[in-house]
Amino acid sequence: MATSPAPPPTRPMAPPRVLTVAGSDSGGGAGIQADLKAMLALGVHGMSVITAVTAQNSLGVSGAWELPAEAVRAQFRSVVDDIGVQAVKTGMLATAELVETVAGLLADVSAPVVVDPVGVSKHGDALLAAEALGSVRTRLLPVATVATPNLDEVAQLTGVTVAGEGDLRRAAGAVLEFGPRWALIKGGHLDGDAVDLLTDGTEEHWLRAPRHDNRHTHGTGCTLASAIASHLALGAGVPEAVAAAKEYVTGAIAAGFPLGRGIGPVDHGWRWR
Predict the structure, then answer these.
(1) What is the C-alpha to C-alpha distance for residues 220 and 268, in angstroms, rounded to an integer?
(2) Mean pLDDT across the stretch 199-215?
(3) What is the pTM of this model?
(4) Which residue range or ranges hold the Pyridoxamine kinase/Phosphomethylpyrimidine kinase domain (predicted)?
(5) SS3 sequence, the chain?
């Protein structure tokens, strides 16, 4: 007796789509590479617009070359116009021209935008031209749903020096003056627990996590911003997305591992180990 052919498999639903606009880290710990790893770990489809290529390893950045603005624009349009996005994350933008280009593109996107205003690498290497700071303040931060500066980036952008937890509120207020809806001031460089402040100027959320003595923390900022964007794409509100991202990154830092002779990366796949 003939059997009926098996029905075709059900086509799976596409996961939420998140776009990272950032530089490439050849060592795989930060930048585009970290962003895509975090997005995969959190269950979204990661896409990329590469703004710059770095020669980078566990010891630092030995070279960086930005892409032409037209290449950045073409990558962005090819993804957004065909595939679409539910959230965008920005990282290393390198020059004023690229900041202006990306800010203009984001102004026409309705999805939430997480801006990591990358100024220097974990090793202290400059990743943003000094003359681009004005464009970050006036063009990029105003289109941000969440801005995620660390303390060095706060000082670069606002002139506010954070010496202790009591300065975080003042730093957040200075960042919010440039127009993002929310500011997440990352206090990981302070003594004691790793404490961050998320605020929109009205409500405050203090996020604390125990400090780990693991020195392998390369890619922490990129990973956090990508995790926030991923949770926003999955439907979380900003406070919930930031809290979930903080929990994910805390685990990734604890599981960070040695590579090369310097600072190794956080472990983006720590939940799978």
Answers:
(1) 10
(2) 91
(3) 0.94
(4) 25-267
(5) CCCCCCCCCCCCCCCCEEEEEEEEECCCCCHHHHHHHHHHHCCCEEEEEEEEEEEEECCEEEEEEECCHHHHHHHHHHHHHHCCCCEEEECCCECHHHHHHHHHHHCCCCCCEEECCCCECCCCCECECHHHHHHHHHHHHHHCCEECCEHHHHHHHHCCCCCCHHHHHHHHHHHHCCCCCEEEEEECCCCCCEEEEEECCCCEEEEEECCCCCCCCECHHHHHHHHHHHHHHCCCCHHHHHHHHHHHHHHHHHCCCCCCCCCCECCCCHHHC
Annotated catalytic residues are 186, 217, 219-222
In whole angstroms, give the CA distance from residue 52 to residue 61: 12
Q: How many domains does the chain have?
A: 1
Task: Read off the pLDDT of each residue in 194-208 and give the average, rounded to a whole number.
Answer: 94
Measured CA distances, 125 to 87, 112, 252 (Å): 28, 29, 23
For 141-169, the pLDDT digits (tens) are: 999 999 999 999 999 999 999 988 889 99
Q: How far is CA 8 from CA 4, 11, 51, in A?
A: 12, 9, 41
pLDDT, position 1: 53
Containing structural domain, residue 117: 17-264
Residue 202's alpha-carbon distances to 11, 21, 169, 173, 181, in angstroms, are: 44, 29, 11, 10, 11
Q: What is the pLDDT of residues 237-256, one digit of tens each?
A: 999 999 999 999 999 999 99
In a domain, 200, yes or no: yes
CATH number assigned to the domain comprising residue 145: 3.40.1190.20
